[in-house]
Specification:
It is a single chain. The protein is mostly helical and 246 residues long. 76% of the residues lie in helices and 0% in strands. The protein is built from ten helices and no strands. It is globular.
Length: 246
């Protein structure tokens, strides 16, 4: 455990040395909340959105943004670069197994994500009066499942990408549809019924809705939690079968 803690600390330091990873993984989401909250119309209740304010709807979407950018872009690319440079192969000859490096990278990414999500919740609350999650246990469960599902998808990306550049390209191709169904470009409440139903069965569509339910005080719907658990199981199994250390 001591070696794992040290390895995780090193991975966090390495991530912090990457300006793009820090900006998009930690700083961008809180900044996006500020930008959106600064639009006057986004701070007023909208009848077509059930009386909700747009800024209230976008805080969970920004949390999903953090998970997506770290889960399918930052962490998989780091792992693909390690494989490309032979780091994993060399580590396989040491007492520290490559799987420990994998766990350290995941934990480092999750730590960055937690900092970003706490920051964007604080910014939303202090600057624009966005209510903090009322169902804390449900919010935590939804956040953990959504993060696990997206990071499991990222491990599949890391498993099949032959290089860091290829991993970055694949991650970017996945990021945009994931965030579309999460409601980044069009709020889920404004989507046509059929499209919203499709969104309910995507990792971040289900994740955002579960976070919104918990934010308003309701327990996340069982369907959305089941969808997240299903993605976690499928992607984890696929990553375990496809992942190679060399």
């Amino acid at each position: 455990m001591n070696s794992f803690a040290k390895l995780t600390s090193v991975e966090i330091k390495l991530l912090l040395r990457e300006p793009a990873a820090v900006f998009f993984g930690v700083a961008f989401a809180p900044i996006l909340v500020v930008v959106l909250g600064s639009i006057p119309g986004f701070r007023k209740p909208v009848a077509d959105l059930g009386g909700a304010r747009v800024i209230d709807l976008y805080v969970p979407v920004c949390a999903a943004f953090v998970l997506a950018i770290l889960g399918v872009a930052v962490v998989p690319t780091a792992l693909a670069i390690y494989r490309e440079r032979g780091v994993l192969r060399r580590m396989s000859t040491t007492p520290v197994p490559p799987a420990r490096l994998l766990g350290a990278n995941l934990l480092a990414g999750l730590a960055m994500g937690l900092v970003a999500i706490v920051a964007l919740l604080a910014v939303g609350r202090i600057a624009f009066g966005v209510a903090l999650p009322r169902q804390l246990l449900g919010y935590a469960l939804a956040l953990v499942l959504a993060a696990a599902a997206v990071f499991a998808l990222g491990l599949v990306v890391a498993a099949v990408a032959p290089s860091g550049k290829a991993s970055s390209v694949i991650g970017n191709l996945l990021f945009f549809p994931l965030m579309f169904f999460a409601g980044l470009y069009v709020p889920r409440e404004a989507m046509p019924h059929g499209l919203r139903q499709v969104s309910d069965y995507t990792p971040l569509g289900a994740g955002v809705q579960a976070l919104r339910d918990a934010s308003t005080g309701s327990w996340p719907h069982a369907t959305h939690l089941a969808v997240l658990a299903g993605y976690l199981a499928v992607f984890s199994l696929a990553a375990a079968r496809l992942f190679r250390w060399e």
